[in-house]
Write a structure and sequence with these properties.
Elements: H1 5-28, H2 35-56, H3 58-113, E1 116-125, E2 134-137, E3 150-152, E4 157-164, E5 169-173, E6 180-185, E7 191-197, E8 200-206, E9 218-221, E10 235-242, E11 251-257, E12 266-272, E13 296-300, E14 312-316
GO cellular component, one term: plasma membrane
Biased composition (Basic and acidic residues): 276-288
Pfam families: MreC
Amino acid sequence: MRDTRESRLLLVLLVAIAFALITVDIRGGEDSPVDGARSAAATVFGPIENGVSAAVDPVGNAVAAVRDSGERHDRLARLEQENAALKAKLGSDDRDRSRLRQLDKMLKIAGQGQYGIKGAEVIAIGAAQGFSWTITIDAGANDGIKRDMTVLNGDGLVGRVTTVGPNTATVLLANDPDFTVGTRMEASDELGFASGQGDRPLRVELLNGKAEVKKGDRLVTFGSQADKPFVPGVPVGVVARVDPSGGNLTRTLYVTPYVAFSKLDIVGVVVQAPAKDPRDTVLPDKPEPTPTPTVTVTVTPSGAPPADGQYQYEQEQ
């Protein structure tokens, strides 16, 4: 359009009309006379604007996508936390069940031997005692624990109390090289002394060098004077190997202990000794022997040897 007087006049007129429409729209509020025109324009141009916006505003779309992704990530994180909490609860339940089994076994031993025990939990292993095989339990002087008390669990002899604090105590384990306990053989009553050898079987020196001992025989504690540090009748272990006597004054045995010293959790301190020696009553039941099949072979002649020179055999089991 050429810049003429008429064009300038037309421009001024259009601007004036635009201002007039704006003024009318503002004063009209919700009843503005131009609402119909605005709605019509939105209907016509709205889809076009949306398409153009989607095409020219990838940054906005990316931000929205990241925001949604963050929400999904948060939900995933919450689910993972809930799953972890559930697994921890299940693990805790498994541990509780294991502890209940240990407690049941220990109470059974205490009942059979008539031991008065104080239950405790192992809270540390080898705490500040150098290379000694020791544990720390969460019971001490305030619970009636004293030095030189016998410690057991549901399997047998664990050790003896060596140090006592107000709320904790240290237990020297039966497999420690400085540990020694008097033992008695089941049935034969042969006496000896068992010493710890770390992660190897206990070494037992029988006082009778000619004692008849075989693999599988079992031992219990003999007991100490005034029942300290050991009460009688606590299961110690099973004979794994017997050294030849060789004319020695003593006989050496190697005994697999009943207790797994690397898996201790619930233990009991014997705070009251039995009124009488329980002897062998606390030992676990012996496993049922596996029957050995017997085979009887009968030679049945058939009058004449078979053509292949073999006999017929009947086998009974």
